[in-house]
Design goal:
A hairpin with a 4-residue loop joins strand 5 and strand 6. Helix 1 (2-41) packs parallel to helix 6 (224-234), helix 2 (66-80) runs parallel beside helix 3 (136-154) and helix 5 (209-215) packs parallel to helix 6. It is flat, with a radius of gyration of 27 Å. The chain is α/β, with parallel strands linked by helices. Helices cover 41% and strands 12% of the residues. The strands form two sheets. A five-stranded mixed β-sheet has the order 3-2-4-6-5, covered by helices on one side. A two-stranded antiparallel ribbon has the order 1-7. The protein has a domain at 55-199: Collagenase (Catalytic Domain), CATH 3.40.390.10. The chain has helices at 2-41, 66-80, 136-154, 186-196, 209-215, 224-234, and strands at 44-46, 55-59, 84-88, 102-107, 115-118, 123-127, 206-208.
């Protein structure tokens, strides 16, 4: 019995050691890959002046957790590269006070519909009063999914070719529960910039530090990888090298 217990202990220790070694190897490989990418690109950055306008998410309620809305705003900023902001405010359906270039209001009103979209007037709203669930995870998911639907519609993407993907058709609130998560598919995201441009909203242009150096607008380097790229690019001749014409031989 004792030998069996010892064998089990040794096996568990060996498995733990193997797991730790595998995790270390994976971490080492990831670190090495990161170094290779940084050495080649210098990292990624946004070109100044390319991100213009503002999509303002205005929180006008207290029923839904503000952290849920913050998560959606962070997602919109990342996936669209628009300047998406979050602020507190109020909403008057007769005279909506649009903030920024486009406004997405989050309200709590028993009378208003689940969503209203007036993209030509630069605003849309979602109504958390119609999204409530006695299960908090469902409430959170519904709010974030409806935010994604409203954001897409406000910025010009009313439908997708991907089945069961947002913005998708929602005939009743429970239909929101069938969507896997609040993310938007690529065909929706690809249509946003062309439409939003009419309202003065343009995405940040993201490129590598190497490209920025070659194009002449890169900021001063902030790490050893960027400094190496900076020095190499700026050491290149700025004018074409002049080649002396060949002189003809006397025999010619």
């Amino acid at each position: 019995m004792r030998n069996t217990v010892l064998a089990a202990v040794f096996a568990a220790c060996a498995a733990a050691a193997c797991g730790a070694d595998a995790a270390k190897d994976a971490a080492d490989k990831q670190a090495a890959r990161h170094e290779r990418i940084m050495a080649i690109t210098g990292g990624r950055l946004a070109k100044p002046g390319t991100q213009r306008g503002e999509v303002a998410v205005v929180d006008c309620q207290k029923s839904a957790d503000r952290a849920w809305i913050e998560e959606s705003v962070a997602y919109f900023s990342k996936c669209s590269r628009f300047n998406v902001t979050l602020s507190q405010g109020g909403f008057d359906v007769m005279k909506p006070q649009v903030k920024g270039s486009l406004s997405l209001f989050v309200v709590d009103d028993a009378v208003l519909p689940t969503m209203l979209a007036a993209p030509d007037d630069r605003w849309a709203l979602i109504n958390v009063a119609k999204l409530r669930s006695d299960k908090p995870p469902f409430f959170k998911a519904r709010v974030q999914k409806e935010l994604s639907r409203a954001f897409a519609i406000l910025c010009g993407a009313f439908a997708t070719t991907f089945p069961q993907a947002l913005p998708g058709a929602v005939a009743k609130v429970e239909d929101l529960d069938a969507f896997v998560d609040p993310s938007l598919p690529m065909d929706v995201l690809s249509r946003l910039p062309a439409y939003a441009k009419a309202f003065g909203v343009t995405p940040a242009v993201i490129t590598t530090y190497r490209n920025a150096c070659q194009q002449g607008w890169a900021p001063a380097p902030t790490n050893e990888y960027q400094k190496a790229i900076w020095d190499k690019v700026h050491a290149m001749p700025t004018e074409p090298i002049k080649i002396k014409p060949e002189t003809k031989k006397a025999s010619d």
